[in-house]
Amino acid sequence: DAHGCRASAGYTFSIIKNDCVRLFEQEVQLNEVNPTGTSTSLSAVIFNDDRKKAEVFIPGEPGGIILSRKGKEGSYAWKKGKLCLLQKDKGYALKKSNKIIFSSDPTTGS
Coil, strand or helix: which one is 68? Predict the structure, then answer.
């Protein structure tokens, strides 16, 4: 791609890391909550060092989307437009227009 990342080897560019990454190797991965086809899509999340920014990668989007942290410690949410990443117990849920679309636990949506 324009950043020198080899998509054929599974790499995509991360704005936060300023480097090529493999999304399937990232620590935070979310599963599609209500898949429409026979397969389930994955979303990956990369945080910056102080966790004030989160970069989410959603299938069909051309690159990562940077979300900014809002709220108080213990109830943080990372937001941009209609997207909102919430920390739930030990995992995360990604909402779009108040509907959970990706989650650490797709069976419960939490």
Answer: strand
* AA identity, residue 36: T
The residues near 98 (Cβ < 8 Å, ≥ 6 apart) are 84
Structure-block tokens of residue 45: 């999340």
What does DSSP assign to residue 81?
A: T
Kindly give, in sequence order, each residue whose CB lies less than 8 Å from that of residue 69, ignoring residues fewer than 6 positions away: 51, 52, 53, 54, 76, 77, 78
Q: Does the predicted TM-score (pTM) go above 0.85? A: yes
Give the chain's residues under pLDDT 50.
110
| Cα–Cα distance measured from residue 45 to residue 52, given in angstroms and rounded to the nearest whole number | 13
Positive or negative, the CA dihedral 100, 102, 108, 110 is negative
| Of 23, 28, 26, nearest in space to 12 by CA | 23
